[in-house]
Design a protein that fits this description.
0% helix, mainly beta, globular, 4-stranded antiparallel beta sheet, single chain
């Protein structure tokens, strides 16, 4: 995901997932309940997010790039 300064993504859902900072920047996550968390990511840093519905935005001054990896349930043999 690439967020220009001030860019927003509307309410959406994820399974459990990890965000990996491809560069440094700030990411604000707002849950469906309206509560927000601000993550100041450094290049190479990861954040874990449990399954949730949220919106996201970049309140910072630089473009933020984050690799999002959703954790899928195991496939039965």
């Amino acid at each position: 995901v690439t967020f220009a300064p001030g860019a927003k993504i509307g309410l959406h859902s994820h399974r459990d997932h990890v965000g990996y900072g491809l560069n440094g920047g700030t990411l604000k996550i707002t849950g469906a309940d309206g509560k927000s968390q601000v993550h100041k990511l450094k290049k190479g840093e990861t954040i874990w997010l449990d399954k949730q519905t949220h919106s996201a935005m970049n309140p910072g001054d630089n473009t933020l790039k984050v690799l999002i990896v959703e954790i899928k349930p195991p496939v039965a043999p």
